[in-house]
Amino acid sequence: MRRTITGFSNPTVKYLRSLREKKHRRREGKFLAEGLRLLTDARESGRLPEMLVMAQGRERHDLLDALVAAVDAAGGEVVETDPDILGKITGKDNPQAVAGMFGEWDTSLGALQCEGADLWLVAQALRDPGNLGTMLRTGDAVGAAGLILIDDCADPFSVEAVRASMGAIFTQQLAQAGWEEFLPWLRAGAGQLVAASLRDAVPYRGAPYAAPCFVLVGNESRGLPEEYELACDLRVTIPMLGRADSLNAAVAGAVLAYEVRATLGG
Amino acid sequence: MRRTITGFSNPTVKYLRSLREKKHRRREGKFLAEGLRLLTDARESGRLPEMLVMAQGRERHDLLDALVAAVDAAGGEVVETDPDILGKITGKDNPQAVAGMFGEWDTSLGALQCEGADLWLVAQALRDPGNLGTMLRTGDAVGAAGLILIDDCADPFSVEAVRASMGAIFTQQLAQAGWEEFLPWLRAGAGQLVAASLRDAVPYRGAPYAAPCFVLVGNESRGLPEEYELACDLRVTIPMLGRADSLNAAVAGAVLAYEVRATLGG
Predict the structure, then answer these.
(1) Which domains does chain B possess?
(2) Does A141 sit within 8 Å of B244, measured CB to CB?
(3) Is the peptide bond before A212 cis (omega within 30 degrees of 0)?
(4) Residue B103 clears pLDDT 80, i.e. is over it
(5) Residue B239 and residue A139: Cβ atoms within 8 Å?
(6) What's the complex ipTM?
């Protein structure tokens, strides 16, 4: 279905703008993703926006044509508006911008597809949406099956997290759960839980990683609670050769995950 | 020297607030750093603020006492103000906040201390101050001597970069230069220039890294110019096992730098 929207006070414009805020996303179960490349990643991963928004008179592009055709075929809406209104929705002054509104999906642990997965990233109380998106992006690159968010993390469907994921929000599996739900779920299977730690830990290089390996990273300022560290099957240390006692959370996860990947092969 | 400041229109308040903008930092050669831990890192690394700002009636703290004593002894200013005004300076609503105004230092290549350094991080056209600060933080952890910024990078003295560095802005060496200046400087010594690349590259694990090793990371969206890659002594590939063709720049630098560290030892 095609529509043209004019006027900032149009309810659709207001609705889309409202999805920049977490409380509205929660209530509506919808989120925004921006950029032709990201939306193409989504399409190629089988995720289509329920609504696609672009500026009237935008330059043609093969990938955009493919996107419009796919949204049309799936019964979604294609909305054209003027560049100023588009800018209000995307928060950017770019008349070439394309935005999509997606329905959020099931992020329960039970919905994860674990078969064949040898590596997962797990983040606990990760507060920065940029770090969260970066972990999704790293997970894609390192061949992880997905990201599991433990306790009170940033919203993976926020504009910042989606942007930093560079499309991996659509390709990585994603779950959200409390620790008290995660640990029994993990223990019901064969997963090895690994954390970077200073407690009773072995060097991260050459540690006995085993698939399926779950790489656990803690909160940006507090790290992991002691109880969580103690519940891990393997605690490893990454050398800290300077004054600081920790790496950025997304960086620590990446250094560790690439080491695990090298051990597991693939 | 001690001073108490009341009133938002006080020229010192205006001056300090202005340092949140790059053009004012450039003109004045001053920058802001915030947080007792960060300022303590600075002090212990031999960098003292020219002016220290805190709220009147702030809780005592041994590290704060040490900082005040050091600033006093060095002839700097200690300014007390009310929490609202402090919030205007730091941009945060935290009456326990402490801010320091520092003089920028010489960031020319000629000022770098290269003796004994076996690892450097180099970033080209890195635009995100958070990535820049994260690279400084990683450099500290991985035992790098410092960070060299090539071409038009984000400002390392911005509030965001200083914050993301978690104090490493004070402990890592820092230089800023154009490529046309950097390359002859490098070639005048024995440095090995290494980049992650897809061109004529070898696997990053087990590659023949040699000290002093310079790990080069490119711009967030464009990567490195071809000419720069071709000028490298060693091009390595980090496995990209998913859909994406790149890692976050700070993440790529960290994965590579930790691999170099493992090869070089130390």
Answers:
(1) 2-103 (3.30.1330.30), 109-264 (3.40.1280.10)
(2) yes
(3) yes
(4) yes
(5) no
(6) 0.94
